[in-house]
């Protein structure tokens, strides 16, 4: 069974896509915790950080280059933002498909949760 992210990647479900290339897609979070909340999702499914093999480790550099593009595009670079990867149950991961949150547009406090 496909995850919600796989259905969005395959364009079977609609989402507000703000960036897409051959390796990744960036969408607006449907339940944002901040005025600007985006998800950077690799198109290849990785359950979590540990599931990325050494042959696929390049995906991180690609995803972080996409984060830089989105941050500039959305004017988050001037005041700051947070990048979050929830990994596993205790880390708050609710969808078994690795994704990176970009959260900004307001002052973010610490600790987060």
Structure description:
By secondary structure, this protein is α+β, with helices and mostly antiparallel strands. It has a single domain (4-104), classed as HIT-like (HIT family, subunit A, 2-Layer Sandwich). The chain contains two helices and five strands; from the N terminus they run H-E-E-E-H-E-E. The protein has helices spanning 4-9, 58-73, and strands at 17-20, 24-28, 36-42, 81-84, 100-104. The protein has a five-stranded antiparallel sheet, with helices on one face. Strand 1 (17-20) and strand 2 (24-28) form a beta hairpin. The longest helix is centred in the middle third of the chain and has 16 residues, at 58-73. The chain starts with a helix and ends in a 9-residue tail after the last strand. 19% of the residues are buried.
- The overall pLDDT, averaged over residues, is 96
Provide the structure class.
alpha+beta
Strand numbers in spatial order across the main sheet: 1-2-3-5-4
Instruction: Tell me how many strands there are.
Output: 5
Count up the domains: 1
Specify Rg, calculated over alpha carbons.
14 Å
